[in-house]
Amino acid sequence: MENRRRPTTILVSGIFFLLVFGGLTVAALSTAEINAATLVFAAVSLFVCVAIVGALIGAVRKPPEDE
Question: pTM here?
Answer without folding.
Answer: 0.78
